[in-house]
Amino acid sequence: MGLSGMLPFAKLHDKDGGFLVNDELKIVAEIEALEVIGTLVESKEKTSSSVKESMDVNGFQVLPSQAEALRGIFESHPDIAVEFRAKNQNPRTACMNFLLSLSDMLTKSLQELSYEDLVEAGIALAYLKNAGFKVDWLEKSLNKFKKNIRRRGSQ
Fold this sequence. Notes:
Elements lengths: L8 H5 L26 E3 L6 E3 L3 E3 L2 E3 L1 H13 L12 H17 L9 H16 L5 H18 L2
Antiparallel strand pairs: 1-2, 3-4
């Protein structure tokens, strides 16, 4: 999964400015955690580790604390994920975290958000749309917030 516009294939292979060295690609990423999904719990009795429990909501694994909010989204927008096809749980969980974070952000007051916050939210929204989520309702809310923040900034 990913956005094809982020790094065109031709640029990846460019002899003068490409990223391949000896036909290998090393990717280094800086990741900002929006929310911790689980924590590693090590037991002195066992040699193996386990992750805290998650719940299934419409085929998506989420923390129990996220289940109610996600159920509400699916009740209000039952067709939100009908075109989403990822089978691997990692991208499924990542998309749900984006969705829940965006939904939560749009419940905040204008004073709590900056225009930059909304620009980053737009990037997350584009990711969800590209993955097959029907999030027109979220896009309308985000655009309304952007408009109000621009208006607030011009006062």
